[in-house]
Amino acid sequence: MEKVAVVTGGSRGIGKAIVEALARKNVKVIANYNQSEEKAKKLKEELEKENIEIDIFKADVSKREEVKKMIDYTIKKYGKIDILINNAGIDQEKMFQDITDEDWNNVMKVNLYSVFCTTQEVIPYMINQKNGCIINISSIYGINGGSCAVAYSATKAGIDGMTKALAKELGPSNIRVNSIAPGYIDTDMNKKYSKEEREQIKEETPLEKIGKPEDIAKCIEWLIEDNFTTGQVISINGGWVI
Ligand code: NAP
Fold it and tell me: Counting atoms of ligand 1 from 1, which one is nearest the CA of 62?
């Protein structure tokens, strides 16, 4: 049987490109969404035109009971999960002094707790089948830190720490765990930047361009086929951070 993948935040941006790439590689994909139901339905319809069937599943990944329902649905329908892509995430731009407890807890829940609880719900099945590939989408801010993005940076550094520790713990079960830490990628998340700011980022990037969601999906395609890469943080950023 084909591989089965769950992609969180799969209806738009980087997650959408990952869903498309995996589905076109014959992977059975469960594309998770939370608020973007219309976009998820549209993506399903677009892929159907290519004779590709995907599942879309609404779940707020910061809530364990909703994650559990999604994983139960996947196992009931396909009997296994080979690939988990923890992609869902939110941005938070605030001066450090202005971050409230509520802001902090919210970004921690959506960006970090979601990775903890989704992974925890999935790994019993991967351990049982002695095979699995988990890819977490972190950020260069987790490596370098971003000004006015302390809480966001902390979640992404947390994801990279979790990736490395889990890779050690799950390696003997033949489960590989890696992070992809994107640089500036052209998605809704970066709509807040002005034309001038985008030009400045391009200028600071050795490859003199802005990344596309497909650039991240290409790395995912490689990582799911690989056999000997685990515990790594792979930063795809055009050389913006070296
Ligand atoms: P985006 O276009 O804003 O998309 C965010 C995605 O996360 C959406 O699919 C959204 O789903 C989902 N999401 C948010 N909260 C969720 C929740 N509680 N439950 C389920 N899904 C939720 O952002 P993106 O650029 O594609 O970002 C994808 C990942 O890459 C994020 O983890 C982000 O931190 C990371 N990243 C992005 C960049 C960049 O430059 N774009 C750079 C570094 C890292 P709904 O719309 O359905 O709610």
Answer: 18
- Pick the atom of ligand 1 nearest to 36's CA: 47
- What is the full DSSP assignment across the chain? ---EEEETT-SSHHHHHHHHHHHHTT-EEEEEESS-HHHHHHHHHHHHTTT---EEEE--TTSHHHHHHHHHHHHHHHS---EEEE---------GGG--HHHHHHHIIIIIIHHHHHHHHHHHHHHHHT-EEEEEE--HHHHH--TT-HHHHHHHHHHHHHHHHHHHHHGGGTEEEEEEEE-SB-SGGGTTS-HHHHHHHHHHSTT-S-B-HHHHHHHHHHHHH-SS--S-EEEESTTS--
Q: Which of 141, 152, 184, 193 is catalytic?
A: 152
152 is an active site residue: yes
Ligand 1 touching residue 78 (CB < 6 A): no
Please state whether the predicted TM-score (pTM) of the whole model is above 0.85. yes
Query: Mean pLDDT for each 10-residue chunk of the chain (242 residues)?
Result: 96 99 98 98 98 98 98 98 99 98 98 98 98 98 97 98 98 98 97 94 96 98 98 98 92
